[in-house]
Amino acid sequence: MNLAGEFAELAPELSRALENAGSLEELEELRIDFLGRKGRLAAIMAKLAKIPAGERPAAGQAANEAKEKLGELLGARKAAIEAEQEQKLLADFDPTMPGRAFWQGSLHPVTQVMEEICLIFQKLGFDIAYGPEVEIDRYNFEALNIPPDHPARDMQDTLYITENILLRTHTSPVQARTMLARRPPIAIVAPGKVYRRDSDLTHTPMFHQVEGLMVGQGITMANLRGVLLAFARAVFGEATSMRFRPSFFPFTEPSAEVDVSCMICKGKGAVNGKPCRVCKTTGWVEILGSGMVDPNVYKAVGYPETVSGFAFGMGVERIAMLKYGINDLRLFFQNDIRFLSQFGVDA
Ligand code: DAH
To answer: For the whole model, what pTM was predicted?
Structure first.
């Protein structure tokens, strides 16, 4: 047989072989066998150089045709095998099966409540201010009218790093920092983490506070009351009432603790005839401490005596517990997904 004949034999041979090739792997083996560098086509082509020059053009053309035809045959079988595989896949695929829902994360309830508190005050014109969690004695105590021998230092269960450096025990140092950095009028709220050497059912060594400060000309306790009432009603509902109880803080004079009507028993002291456990039947719950900024604080930051203003500070976990009726502080820190997922966007 001449070379042209040998080339022409290749396609029918491949055709027969393809009938038994059911997988892409077998197909690849055949491709290497016929079209590979050491394959059958290459073997015949190697003989081209040895035949008389006159026969070469016809043999060369036959080689090209064979190569093209082999490629076509392999391509067609490949398409057929792939289509078969797809059909099989579709047969197993149930488009009516319900999809798998993605896990959706959400902000921690304490973060949510802290953001909500800040937003309420922002709408009242307050800026947000931040301060460091590792603080120096001067801002955490001294500038806030708490001298070294003051009993309030014991009250605060401070975690010291050195004699002079500590973990802030409240967000009040942001008051002092803000007043040192800016002139009045000032209206800020300062959210953040605070630390105390204290751990039991109702205390954790780290918790969150939001501090508030408004300083300017002619600001009175009536302004404090108005701002806090607007805040309390935004968080706990428009029906909320509020009362001031005289108290003491070194950095405010006069000072007041602020109670709101109990959101669980609606101030009645009982729910369905049973004593209310949240307000212990008093009808009131404490939400924060506040007062008029003490003149000694103005002196410490170099403000003139003619300014006046108020400050307040609240525990975010406490507000969150009251708002959502949570009775165990530890739930906030255990990262139990069953608890946390109740505060998701769709919850
Ligand atoms: N710093 C106080 C605390 O941690 C809370 C507080 C009370 C802040 C009265 C104030 C305030 O600004 O006026 O217990």
So the answer is: 0.73
Q: Is the CB of 250 under 6 A from ligand 1?
A: no
Query: CA-CA distance, 174 to 224, in Å (whole number)?
Result: 19
The C-alpha atoms of residue 246 and residue 229 are separated, in whole angstroms, by: 17
- Strand 186-195, strand 127-128: pairing: parallel
CA of 86 to the centre of ligand 1 (A): 69
At 290, list the tokens.
Answer: 């506040």
Closest atom of ligand 1 to 171 CA is 1
Please count the residues of the chain: 347
Cβ(137) – ligand 1 distance below 6 Å: no
Count CB atoms within 10 A of the CB of residue 74: 19
Q: Where are the beta strands (DSSP E) in 117-161?
A: 127-128, 134-136, 159-160
Does 100 have pLDDT greater than 80? Answer: yes
47, amino acid identity:
K
Of 145, 177, 189, 249, best ligand 1 pocket probe by most atoms within 8 Å of the beta carbon: 249
Residue 323 has pLDDT above 60, yes or no: yes
Say if residues 265 and 234 touch (Cβ distance below 8 Å).
no
91 CA distance to ligand 1 middle (Å): 68
Give the separation between CA 146 and CA 126, rounded to whole angstroms: 26
pLDDT at residue 156 in the model: 62
Centre of ligand 1 to C-alpha 328, Å, is 23
Residue corresponding to tokens 């040998």 = 6
Taking only the tens place, the pLDDT of each residue in 215-267 is 999 999 999 999 999 999 999 999 999 999 999 999 999 999 999 999 989 99
Give distance in angstroms: CA of 122 to centre of ligand 1: 20
Point out the ligand 1 atom lying closest to the alpha carbon of residue 169: 4
Using DSSP's 3-state secondary structure scheme, residue 215 falls into: strand
- Within 10 A of 200 (CB to CB), how many other CB atoms are there? 8
Residue 276: pLDDT band by 50, 70, 90 thresholds? very high
Please answer whether residues 63 and 57 qualify as being in contact, where contact means their C-beta atoms are separated by less than 8 angstroms: no
- Sheet of 165-167: strand order equals 134-136, 165-167, 159-160
CB 178 less than 6 A from any atom of ligand 1 = no
